[in-house]
Amino acid sequence: MIRKFVAVAAAALIMVGCTNVDPVTGERTTNRTGTGAIIGAIVGAGAGTLAGGDDRRNAMIGAGVGALAGAAIGNYMDRTYQNLRQRLAGSGVGVTRVNQSQIMLNFPADLTFDFDRDAVKSQFVPTLMDVGAILREYDQTTVDVYGHADCRGADAYNQDLSERRAMNVASVLTQGGVIRQRVAVRGFGESQPRYEPCDAAGNRRVEVFISAFQG
Fold this sequence. Notes:
Layout: E1 13-15, E2 39-41, H1 53-62, H2 71-87, E3 94-99, E4 102-108, H3 109-112, H4 125-137, E5 141-148, H5 155-175, E6 183-187, E7 205-212
Parallel strand pairs: 5-6
Antiparallel strand pairs: 1-2, 3-4, 4-7, 5-7
């Protein structure tokens, strides 16, 4: 079962702890060495903030985020996309323009996490912080963080791992400047593989969808 993370009462604290190469970003599709676990809290303005939908929209408006409309959407997302491509060149993060109003970032698990761990690798934290800084600049967008696992191991375990990894990526993005009202987090476990076989390395990933906040 896919679970949505919702901010409640005291709000949860989140602990961050064959290859094709994109010529611009260096994305690969195919040790927990930090000085300490990174702790972040994504605290919603209301229970629906982390669940998305109208509650997130209302929270963003309340936080002073302006909505985009008409031709402004494409122009705004063009600038966002180009900035992300330039700033993430050679990082291994995939930057894909999904459509006029949406961009997807792909964080392969081998770059972002140690095997079977949910803490973001210390050496990858600066990259995520940089993404957060870019998204802080282009703040008229929503940020949906989705965790995915491969099919090795039990379904329930993979579901939980995908959720924790997504939460920890979201935590670092908020530390980089993304306001909490823009963020929604979800884990999909092994239910949405991108590659065959289902245990392919590329299926272990966190994807961030950046969408125009439309009026």
